[in-house]
Amino acid sequence: MRFLVLLMALSLGTAYCFPAPPKKTAYRPRVYSVEQLRSDFAVLRKTLEERHPSLYRYVPREKMNQQFDSVFRQLYRPMTEVEFRDLLRPLIVQIRCGHTDVQESLYTSRSTRKPQPEWLPFDIILQNDRLFIGRNRSTDSSLICGTEVLKLGNYPVKDIIQAARDRWPSDGYNQTFKNYFLELYHLEDTYWRHFSGRSPWTLTVRDTTGTERLTTVRRRPVASGDLQTSPAPATVKRSKKSRHRTEASYDEDDAKLQLMRSLHFINSDSTAAMLIINSFGYERYQSFHREVFETLEKQKVQDLVIDLRQNTGGNAEIGSDLMSYLMKSDFRQVDRAECRVRRPNACSYFDRKEKRVLRQNFRFMRAEGGRYHFGKSNVGWNKPASEHRFTGRVYILTSGRTFSAASIFTASLKAQRTVTIIGQETGGGEAGCNGGIIQTLTLPETRLRVRFPVFWIATASRNPDQGRGVMPDYSIEYTVRDRIKQRDRDLEKALELIQSGKRKMTLR
């Protein structure tokens, strides 16, 4: 009996020698003191005042200083990184620069324990500050496409849209660029962060018959029919020692390039073509452009539609090379690149790699009017292509997504030759934008990252800077039904104008 008691005691003692599995701790963000927050804010303000190329372009210095002072007065209590960022974002938006934004620290962005946004269980369509349901993935199957959402929880949709706009940057007074990102994810992110939007979601909706009702929805479980059944293409891994690319890797690259740029004929006699460029980010662009315009010349194409509706920018040199085939004489795409300081990379808080790229790609040219002008191959006058130049009619399709290098291309081309713009106001400014190379300022205490450009990139447009994008010659308004049916009214208008031009030529 004594032996059994000793054995039981030994067993219990051994059991308590092994630690229990660690409990998953709740996410606890670091809290920063008032002194740390004010120190970071001082660094941010000083850097922007010294180096941002357009800090006072659309907002008077006195008003901008009032905005800075207002934020500083709110730094009277400790805050988390998220709270500090939420305080800074409306301030940064006041600069009215689509390339300037406050991003979370690398530590937070890489954290696997931080709370993740909960996305609404349906696609959203914004129409004149109203929200409609697109594809429905919720548990309420009666929410058909076109159903209007009046409230999310207890909050009117208009209030959430306005809060999202107040926290998202754009060039000047443009709104089409903001609308694109609100639809993409920013409205949902704002609802989750600032209005506690969580599943299950309570919606006040108005259906297509005008009936209003309240419904509570969750995300519908993913069914087999919702998933793609075709297998994903296998990724081909190449040896580091191999200097030759495999045939499979070429196919993979070609597929990606086709998504970025492609050429199609859009009428029966192949005299009209559409060049789709979804990004100025493709390699071997010189050979691609040469092949495109050689093809247009051989086919005797008279009308060219350039689709830039999905193009948020990229390498401006691609735009210059493309533009060389559309001009008869010397032209300018980037009129000038100017900076507020002579050494734009001389800041201890900037990212080192970005500083090196800036030093290698730009050279100082001259000082003029308190600005420093920098040179690059595509800045200033450029020569047209020596052959295969297109002299026919050009139509450009634009939207709020047409931004940065794409809007620079559109504005400068419109200023120097006859083109027809169809669609929406471009997201990027007609007069120019802040760009070139984007620098990352890492605040020393909170490690928040503030990304902003160091150059003002001016286009060839001579119109006064009104803080707006390139306005279309034919403004196209889409209805909710158009969006649901995926109707391409921009292209329809281009084809109508092309056909009208052909009829006029026939009458002559």
Automatic annotation (TrEMBL):
Residues 1-19 form the signal peptide. Its EC number is 3.4.-.-. Transmembrane segments: none annotated. The keyword Cell wall biogenesis/degradation does not apply. Coiled coil: none annotated. InterPro entries: ClpP/crotonase-like_dom_sf, Tail-specific_protease. It comes from the Bacteria. Gene3D superfamilies: 2-enoyl-CoA Hydratase, Chain A, domain 1 (3.90.226.10). The keyword Hydrolase applies. Residues 252-477 form the Tail specific protease domain. It holds the Pfam family Peptidase_S41. CDD domains: Peptidase_S41. Keywords: Hydrolase, Signal. Residues 221-250 are annotated as: Disordered. It is an enzyme of class 3 (hydrolase). GO terms for molecular function: hydrolase activity. This is S41 family peptidase.
